[in-house]
From TrEMBL:
GO BP, sorted A to Z: chemotaxis
Name of the coding gene: cheD
Name of protein: Probable chemoreceptor glutamine deamidase CheD
Protein family (similarity comment): Belongs to the CheD family.
The reaction(s) this protein catalyses: L-glutaminyl-[protein] + H2O = L-glutamyl-[protein] + NH4(+)
UniProt entry keywords in alphabetical sequence: Chemotaxis, Hydrolase
InterPro entries attached to this UniProt entry: CheD-like_sf, Chemorcpt_Glu_NH3ase_CheD, Cytotoxic_necrot_fac-like_cat
Any Pfam family: CheD
Length: 179
C-alpha cells in the first residue's frame, strides 16, 4: 500500500494522546522512551492507538485524580483503549494488540541516568503488566533498545510500519528524542 498517495487521512499522534479509528486513518507518531499500544478488531476493521509517556498515574498522581490526558500514563491508556474498543463492539478476546517504543538509551546528552531511572523500560514493563491483567497478549512488538522509532498505524487493517531512528537520523530530521 502506498501511504503517500492514498486518499486515507493521516494524523499525527502527540504524547499523551490516543486515536480511535472508526474510519480508515493512518496514524503516525515518533517514540523514544514512550510506548504506543495499538488494539485492532479484524471483525470491525477498526483500531485504536495511544502514545503513553509515563508508566503509571499512581507514581505522579497518587490521589487517582483524572488526568486531562488519560493516555499520558501506560496504565490508564490500556484501560482507555480497551474501554473504547469494547464500546464500539470489539470482542476483547479477539483484539490484536501490538506494542512499540520504550527506548532506554536514546539521548543526545552525554549524561546517563542509572538503569533504575529508565522510563522506557518501566513503560514497557507496565504495558505488559496491564495487558496481562486484562487477559491481553501482544501479537507483535518492537520495544526497548537504544533507538527511537517512527510508526504508522492503519486503523482499518491493524498494520504497523516501523522505522528505527538513531541519533543521526533524529538530528538530521529535526526530531526530538525526548517524548
Amino acid at each position: 500500500m502506498d501511504l503517500n498517495n492514498s486518499d486515507i487521512p493521516h494524523v499525527f499522534l502527540h504524547t499523551g494522546d490516543a486515536f480511535i479509528g472508526v474510519k480508515p486513518t493512518i496514524v503516525s507518531t515518533v517514540l523514544g522512551s514512550c510506548v504506543s499500544i495499538s488494539m485492532f478488531s479484524s471483525q470491525l476493521q477498526q483500531g485504536a492507538i495511544c502514545h503513553a509517556f509515563l508508566p503509571s498515574r499512581k507514581e505522579i498522581n497518587p490521589d487517582k485524580q483524572v488526568s486531562i490526558q488519560i493516555c499520558r500514563y501506560v496504565d490508564t491508556a490500556v484501560d482507555y483503549l480497551l474501554e473504547c474498543m469494547t464500546r464500539i463492539g470489539a470482542n476483547k478476546s479477539r483484539l490484536e494488540v501490538k506494542i512499540f517504543g520504550g527506548s532506554s538509551g536514546l539521548t543526545l546528552s552525554k549524561v546517563r541516568a542509572p538503569n533504575f531511572f529508565s522510563v522506557g523500560d518501566r513503560n514497557v514493563k507496565m504495558a505488559f503488566k496491564c495487558l496481562a491483567e486484562k487477559g491481553l497478549h501482544p501479537k507483535s512488538m518492537d520495544v526497548g533498545g537504544n533507538v527511537g522509532r517512527k510508526i504508522l498505524f492503519a486503523t482499518h487493517t491493524g498494520d504497523i510500519w516501523l522505522k528505527r531512528l538513531d541519533k543521526q537520523t533524529l538530528l538530521k530530521n529535526n526530531l526530538s528524542p525526548h517524548d
